[in-house]
Amino acid sequence: MPPTLASLVHHSALKLTVRAGRERLDTPVRWVHASELTDPVPYMEGGELLLITALKLDAEDADAMRRYVKRLVGAGVAGLGFAVGVHYEKIPEALADAAAEEGLPLLEVPRRTPFLAISKAVSAAIAADQYRAVTAGFAAQRELTRQALSDGPEGLLSALASQVDGWAALYDASGAVVATAPEWAGRRAARITADVERLRDRPAPASSVVGGGTEDGTDGTDGEDRVELHSLGTGRRARGALAVGTASAPGTAERYAVHSAIALLTLVTERSRSLYGAEQRIGAAVLRMLLAGQSDHARGVAGDLYGGLLDAPYRMMLAEAASASAGRARARGGADSDSGSRSGSGSGSGEVDADGVEAASVVLAEAGGDLVGGFVEVAEAAAARSGEAVLVVPDGERRLVVLAADGGAVVTACTRYAHTVGIARSGSEQGTDEDELVVGVSAPAGPVAAGAAYKQAEQALSVARRRGRVLVEHEEVATGSVVPLLADDAVRAFADGLLRALHEHDATGRGDLVASLRAWLSRHGQWDAAAADLGVHRHTLRYRMRRVEEILGRSLDDPDVRMELWLALKATAAVTASAGE
Question: Which candidate, 218, 230, 158, places its Cα nearest to that of 188?
Answer without folding.
Answer: 218
